[in-house]
UniProtKB/TrEMBL annotation:
Pfam families per record: cNMP_binding, Pyr_redox_2
Keyword Flavoprotein annotated: yes
Species lineage: Bacteria, Pseudomonadati, Pseudomonadota, Alphaproteobacteria, Hyphomicrobiales
Annotated source species: Methylobacterium planeticum
Highest taxon above the source species: Bacteria
InterPro entries: cNMP-bd_dom, cNMP-bd_dom_sf, FAD/NAD-bd_sf, FAD/NAD-binding_dom, Ferredoxin-NADP_redctase_2, RmlC-like_jellyroll
Keywords: Flavoprotein, Oxidoreductase
Annotated ranges, domain Cyclic nucleotide-binding: 24-144
PANTHER family: THIOREDOXIN REDUCTASE 1-RELATED-RELATED (PTHR48105)
Molecular-function GO term, any one: oxidoreductase activity
Name used for this protein in its record: Thioredoxin reductase
SUPFAM superfamilies: cAMP-binding domain-like, FAD/NAD(P)-binding domain
Amino acid sequence: MTSDPLLSGQGIDPSAPEARVAQTFPRLGPEMIERVARYGTEETLSDGTPVFSRGQRGADFFLVLQGRIEILDQEHTGALRIFVTHSEGQFTGELTLFNNREILVSGRASGETRVVRITRDGFQRLVTGEPDVGEIVMRAFILRRVGLIRSSVGGVVLLGSGHRRDTLRIERFLVRNAYPHRLLDADVDPDAIGCLSHFGLSREDLPVVIAPGIAMLRNPTNAVLADALGLTEEIDPSQVYDVAVVGAGPAGLAAAVYAASEGLKTIVVEGMAPGGQAGTSSKIENYLGFPTGISGQALAGRAQVQAQKFGARLAVSRMVSGLDCSERPFRLRLEDGSSIPTRAVVVATGARYRKLDVPGYEHFEGQGIYYAATAMEANLCAGEAVIVVGGGNSAGQAAVFLSRTVAHVHILVRAEGLAATMSDYLIQRIASSPRISLHVRAEITGLSGDDVLQEVTWADRATGGSETRRISSVFVMIGADPNTEWLDGCLTLDARGFVATGRAEDGAAAASPYATTTDGIFAVGDVRSGSVKRVASGVGEGSVVVQAIHRFLDPGIV
């Protein structure tokens, strides 16, 4: 087994896949090989035989019995490069084997090679029927995807200005969907100039996505990009699902995991990427079972794979535009004109941060004003002073995370302090950090700059004074508005637009606290009226609601 970017072994992070070679590319023993072989058929491949190709959907799983399978990366020039070779006892594949997305790499036999070929259906039976093998495979696939992302193998090149709105939008979409990519910043990267010349591009064309085998994409929408990269599921409009989960935040993913694991035909529809608002959190430290914390994106990524392991379908970049509840089965309408028939619906669309009422605010959204503080945003403002607006846990987590790389974090809250809205462990960290300053009874009153934000003015309501500073990054995390516009009057909302649950239309108590006023439609997580806005509670609601779905689908179940 060899590799140049993944297995160099020199100066590598001990937490990286490169330091966990035995887990990333495990070698199964004779007893496991014998069990795995029962799920497929043995074949002998001649030298150079292709076993799968980049862009293919539904690739098979190959276990090498004798010989080698070379894994190839296709660069944007079209050239192929061997970066991993699997030998006896090792297997091919990564996370695309758990879904029906296009695969990122190609594979071919090297020399006469004897393999066990397992189809997608057989692979699904293998990972559920042989849990010890399934654990080895799943761990390897997750580590392999991390390795692809770190080395940009199997990905695309994003060419654009690193601080511009659309470049950031595209990069954020790729990052949150765990798609390997390399950013060439046209403002600072010398390679970007050569790339512009090579492809005959001007700065007016940017941002541009360059990928092998597809036309160059000039400033694509998220939906166009997802289709071009094969990130979307192909939806059969004649397929009636038992349950459709709208939204892939913690609550929606939990509902999908439990519904699929209990045999319900499940699809999850998500407009952006798995994780929801929680997916933008740099680290969640009070989630049960993770004493050192876990990022929202990592938690969502694991939950997504878990749901797909049990057979749930995940349709990413498929925004739901409406719900037809006039007949059964229900029908979800999608923005691309397609629809999904389903016997039950789980509304898990969460909530979005509110915006500030400041002149020029919309102009700087995505170009200085952000709603997430991940590693991507932290890199943009490294060494600079930043502002975090908000007094909840999300704001506190963002401030602590950013303080590691920025010059200083200014937290602005309109209240007298943080005690009423933020967990104590975050308050203590903020108070003890020399790089964080808390400004109470303060609010932003002015924003200025050219194309990107350059200066911010805020008022001190206690003293009546104001202050203007050279700041180019503001993280807004205030309050939340529910994502319920698409529900088309199918159920009752509360005065703030959140979904009312636990009561039937006539006011009588519903059979489930997550039942809405329309039978067969349920709501969980932040979108639900009266819910506790915490990841753990969202996961709990998503798991518990499945019992009520079973009762609705089969009234004979007690």
